[in-house]
Structure formats: structure tokens, C-alpha cells
Amino acid sequence: MILIKNIAFIITGIHHISGIASATALIANELSKTNKFNITLITLTDRSDTQFVNVSENVKVIKIFDEKVNLKLRLIEIIFKLNRILNDNNFDVVIAPALIFYILYFASWKNKKLNLIAWDHASIPIKKDVFSLKYLIRKIAAEKSDTLVVITKKAKSVYLQQYKKSKKIVQIYNTIDELNDGKNNYNLNSKKILSAGALDNIKGFDMAIEVARIALAEYPDWKWHIYGEGKEKENLQELITRNGLENQVKLMGHTNKMKDIYKDYSFYVLTSRSESFGMVILEAQKNSLPIISFDCPYGPNELIKNEINGFLIEPNDVEEMAHKIIEMIKNPNLRKNMSDKSMVLSGKTNKHNIVSRWESLLSNL
Asked: InterPro entries under this entry (predicted)?
């Protein structure tokens, strides 16, 4: 007789684009296909009129708020409502992102039978940040969870050094749905560069524009498209105009069809100041795109093998990145060779393998 476990995932919401929500929903959806688990997705704040994350009909969704609310202002209310949900449902395991794990911890503090997992999708603070709020929140996640799941080997190493009281730390890569039939449909004739992400300081698109000023000066037929929205949009557009790049660097805004556009591009460039794992890198690789990235903490160098499926550049070295982009533009054979390697090296994040690791973890708790 198979003992079916009741598993709950907690996320902020599914009404907006979020790498955490997408990664969580994918694992929840896949686990719901097995005969081992009943899966519930609990959202803290959501809107009923929009949904950017695909949730399977096999996954039960519980919304604490069916509207957008300020988490900080409604924190106590959210904790009490979550406490009621946990008490009313017979969950065996509850999983929450590390940065909101404290909400789960305080909501479940009397429920000793629950097995609590903190799942850290993000970069982690270095020692100089020990007095920051994020450090303290991660300390709760690391030391009060029964299991901490991190997505890179480097993150696991840093956690082991900084949080000595962690009970159990497991490293599992994030994954994505398979995007093609396994064939390399790389567009060798494309003269377009792709970047994507929130238009904020962390993603470093100000440096991307500086790189473009250097790299594209002698290649007027090449374009660089940046997808995303954010608070830095006006500043970035002003920087583009100031450098006379209006015809080459385009802020493309948000798209719901990101998975469909990779095939139109020649290679992907990541200019982040820090990057936890880089789901866009994974998507680009699955679509056979070579990657040029700053070797920022903590994720890119676990996906990119320098000079094999892309280039890793010293963080913030704008001139070196421009040089590598020029090298890629001038050498179509290099692009094709790196494209061939991209799909091969993305195999360690194969969806079947990653879901199997989650199955094993949950089954053995």
C-alpha cells in the first residue's frame, strides 16, 4: 500500500512574473502527476483577474488573500490566516522560499508534526552583511527548517560556513520544461543579441549599454534586445539615447512569450552584478544559445563552461565583455560550436532528473 503524503508549497503569488513562482509551480505540477503526493499551492497575496504562472488542475490552490496586499502591513494577519490553513489541513511537509520562510515558521510554531523545508532560490549574503535583515531572515530559514534546499553548490558551501546550526542542507538545481524536441535549431544567421530580466540595479543593464557602446560601434547591423520591466527603465532609456544607441539597443518591455523568442537570437548576454542561478541562462541553453556572462556570485559558473558553451567574464569588466561579444560576432563557427555544446551541458538540469531528486527528498522525510 502506497502512503500518499500531503505536500504544500507556499509562494507570494501567481499573478505576476516571478522566477520563484515559476520554479515552484513546475515542481508542484510534476509531483502532482505521481501517485505519491497530494499537492497544494498556498499563495499569500494574489489577484483573481490575472495569472502568469501555469498551475496544473491536479494542484489545489489556497489563496490567503484574493487581492494584492502589502505583506509588511498585513504580516500578522497573514501569519494567523496561514496558521489556520495549516491547522485545517493534514499536511506532512510544507515548503516555502527562504526569504518568506519566517512567515511559515511563526505560523506553524505549535504544529510540531509538520516537516518544514526552506527553499532558497536567491544569492546569499556574504559575511559583511551579517547584520542585514536578509541575513537574519536566512538565518531563521537555515536554522529553523528541517531541511534547507539550495540551488547551487556554491550556495551550499557558503551556507555551511555561515550557518553552523543548519540541520540538513540539500542542493538541487532548478529546472524548466523542455523547450524543444532535443534538436539544435540554432539560427546562425541571426544578428541579434538577447538579454532579459528586471530593469533594476542588480541586473546591470547600465553596464550592458556601456558594453553595447563599445562592441556594436563597428557593427551597425547588429541589434541588442533587452526584455523586462522595472524601476530603472527611464534611466536606461536615457543612457541609450545619450550614447546614440537608439537604433541598436532596444528595451522591449515585458513579454508572455519569452520561450518563443530565443530562436530569433544569436547569443545571450548576462550583465548581472549578482545572480542566484539564472533561469534565463538555463532557458537560453535549452534553446542552444551561447552565453556571455559576468562570473558574478553565485550561479553562472555552474551553468557556463568558459570557452566551451560561452564566456565567463570577470565581474563588471565592461571592456572584456565587449571584446568577447566582438569575437562572437566575427566568428560564426565559434557561435555554432558553442551552440552545440549548450544543449549537451544543460543535461544536468534535465527536468526528469530534478523532479526525481525532489521525489526522493520528500519520500524520505
From this structure: Glyco_trans_1, Glyco_trans_4-like_N
